[in-house]
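hiii so um. not sure if this is the right channel but i have a protein structure encoded as tokens and i wanna go backwards to a sequence. like what aa goes where. can anyone help
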């Protein structure tokens, strides 16, 4: 079985799993929506009977708000679940996922970067309207760093270097001698994932580290803390 056949079989399996997940999330959204509607009606009834300052009204109001927040997160997850995973490529290691705020809302125009253990940025992708990104990393990926003279980038670069410094000591000496099929040196693992806004202000790093392996996919969502996003 060649690489193309393997990719097709994996794609079919992923599609089936995605269909099941989408269906389950759709049912969860319907159920949660009904609960929210019921609580909103109860909130109106309690307000009419006991007044907005009553303990009963405040309890129902807090419960309705909590379920509404949960519904919003489920709806956001259901929307993301409809997006197809990228097809594996035997010449690439692909990291993909979504960037959201703490409410689950997708964040557009966030730069997601992956850096190797030496602190070199390998790839950067900018999220689109649904908050998705995909980083296609090959063994021949050109290592680069943004120019420090560009002002706002300096802090971001320093953050990148801080992020990778801890992992650098864990790399085996022979890791740099490993070669891909194309004869190019593989990026030094572990790989680190981080996000910045359009002003290159560091937002968040993923707690997960990734080991470079051609033909593999890695899924990682990033949740940006409230107040971290600057006006763009």
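sure thing!! here u go:
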């Amino acid at each position: 079985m060649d690489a193309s056949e393997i990719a097709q079989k994996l794609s079919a399996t992923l599609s089936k799993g995605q269909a099941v997940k989408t269906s389950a999330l759709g049912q969860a959204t319907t159920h949660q929506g009904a609960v929210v509607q019921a609580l909103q009606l109860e909130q109106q009834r309690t307000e009419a009977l006991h007044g907005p300052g009553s303990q009963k009204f405040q309890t129902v109001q807090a419960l309705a708000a909590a379920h509404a927040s949960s519904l919003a997160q489920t709806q956001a997850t259901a929307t993301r679940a409809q997006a197809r995973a990228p097809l594996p490529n035997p010449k690439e290691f692909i990291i993909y996922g979504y960037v959201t705020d703490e409410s689950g809302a997708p964040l557009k125009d966030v730069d997601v970067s992956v850096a190797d253990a030496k602190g070199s940025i390998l790839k950067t992708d900018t999220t689109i309207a649904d908050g998705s990104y995909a980083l296609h990393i090959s063994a021949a990926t050109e290592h680069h760093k943004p120019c420090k003279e560009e002002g706002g980038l300096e802090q971001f670069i320093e953050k990148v270097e801080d992020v990778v410094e801890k992992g650098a000591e864990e790399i085996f000496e022979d890791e740099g001698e490993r070669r891909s099929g194309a004869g190019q040196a593989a990026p030094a693992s572990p790989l680190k994932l981080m996000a910045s806004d359009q002003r290159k202000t560091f937002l968040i790093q993923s707690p997960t580290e990734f080991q470079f392996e051609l033909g593999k996919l890695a899924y990682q969502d990033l949740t940006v803390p409230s107040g971290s996003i600057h006006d763009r």
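oh and The chain has a mean pLDDT of 78.
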